[in-house]
Design goal:
By secondary structure, the protein is an alpha+beta fold. It contains 13 helices and 15 strands. The strands form two sheets. Strands 1-2-3-4-5-6-15-7 form an eight-stranded mixed beta sheet. It has a seven-stranded mixed beta sheet with strand order 9-10-11-12-13-8-14, with helices on both faces. It is globular. The relative contact order is 0.14.
Length: about 400
């Protein structure tokens, strides 16, 4: 069955070569296509379901169903509608200026926004192959503004789509969307025989000495033991407090995860989710949640006990353990999320750019918005990014891989 039994009639936009309609999750899951949607990604369709079930109850979650001219479903693209602050993360003079203006105009650059992608992670284009993904992007790009207006939305954002989609998403740029960089993810090649080989071939002498000193400090303390599980339901209370410690120390906040989110990851994606947990004297002092996909370990979220984390250099200690495990398992890459760029720079990560595509549904407002966006895009406030060897990839066009 590749058709949808209707529970609502949100409208459909007919296009040359296909159509795009808006449905609820209850409707989307009935079609055969949804069972395998995003199957080649670390975050497959189950991840989108988990996010909808456990995060941001204030968001309205919906799905674009993309049909070929024959009527068959060829793609399902999740999105959500929320009131968003478009000035989130602005700093310096612009941040001070907008803060002053908001004393008298509280709704400045706050808008009801349609966000295509995932509320907790990067976005991807659904489709069985590159040709299908390009075709789906073309159809969605032609229909999305009308759907946004029907939903009484002012701003449309394609959230954090990897740079490999720039060619496929060119249709959106042609349709008056502005592409700006989001804070990039990072990746690290770990095709080495050991952690020591990684250090000797990648890091400079000073960094190697620094890491060895940190590891020795940790090893001189009470033993730290690592365990790996795929379900943390029995330990979530203790682990969640460590996640909050890391979250609260961040100067820029995005989604705040819930206990239910971490538990659902293990229960519903246990075939590819792993939690690396470090204990000292029986107490959890750190953890990393990861998703395994192909030859890559996707390091997602970190929790640390800051009563001991700084003294024991737990960030680098857990990093070493994760790489050793990855090398032993034949993995080639560590992929990590944005922020905290300084240690990643010194550990020789590469930037893995992700983009935002933004447009206002009003042509007049969009004319103004596209001139403001380069001044408020998030990467301009992080000076560390410019030190990465491939910093230019944030802006440069990139063809599909």
């Amino acid at each position: 069955m590749n058709q949808i039994a209707r529970f609502s009639d949100p409208g459909s936009v007919a296009l040359a070569g296909g159509s795009v309609e808006v449905v609820s999750r209850r409707e989307a899951v009935q079609c055969r296509h949804w069972a395998n949607a995003f199957g080649s990604q670390a975050k497959d369709r189950r991840y989108y379901e988990i996010v909808e079930d456990t995060l941001h109850a204030e968001f309205t979650y919906r799905y674009f169903v993309i049909r070929q001219g024959t009527g068959d479903i060829c793609g399902i693209q999740p999105f959500f509608v929320a009131d968003l602050d478009l000035l989130h993360g602005t700093k310096g003079r612009i941040g001070r200026l907008t803060g002053l203006i908001r004393r008298y105009w509280p709704r400045l650059m706050r808008a009801r926004t349609l966000v295509v992608g995932c509320a907790a992670g990067e976005g991807h284009i659904d489709g069985d192959d590159e040709i299908a993904r390009c075709a789906n992007a073309r159809l969605l790009g032609a229909a999305i503004v009308k759907h946004a207006r029907d939903l009484e939305v002012g701003v449309i954002v394609l959230k954090e789509f990897p740079a490999k989609y720039r060619s496929a998403l060119e249709r959106f740029v042609q349709n008056d969307f502005t592409r700006i960089p989001s804070l990039p993810n990072v990746k690290l090649n770990i095709e080495y025989s050991s952690f020591d080989e990684y250090m000797s071939r990648t890091l400079g002498p000073a960094m190697r000495r620094n890491l060895r000193r940190k590891f020795k400090t940790a090893e001189n303390a009470a033993p730290i033991e690592m365990s790996i599980v795929d379900d943390v339901s029995s330990e979530i209370d203790e682990m969640y407090q460590l996640y909050l410690q890391v979250y609260d120390r961040s100067t820029m906040h995005f989604e705040r995860l819930t206990k239910q989110y971490f538990c659902a990851l293990g229960r519903r994606m246990g075939d590819k989710v792993r939690f690396f947990i470090w204990r000292q004297n029986g107490k959890i002092v750190g953890f990393i949640s990861c998703i395994l996909q192909g030859d890559t370990i996707h390091s997602e979220y970190l929790g640390l006990d800051y009563e001991v984390a700084l003294d024991l250099h737990l960030y680098h200690y857990t990093f070493r353990d994760l790489i050793n495990w990855g090398i032993a398992g034949g993995y080639k890459w560590i992929h990590s999320t944005s922020l905290n760029y300084d240690p990643k720079l010194h550990l020789r990560y590469q930037l893995d750019p992700i983009d935002l595509y933004v447009r206002h549904t009003s042509a007049i407002y969009n004319f103004v918005l596209r001139r403001i966006l380069p001044w408020i895009e998030p990467t301009r406030y992080d000076k560390t990014l410019k030190k990465f060897a491939n910093y230019d990839d944030i802006w440069a066009p990139k063809q599909p891989q």
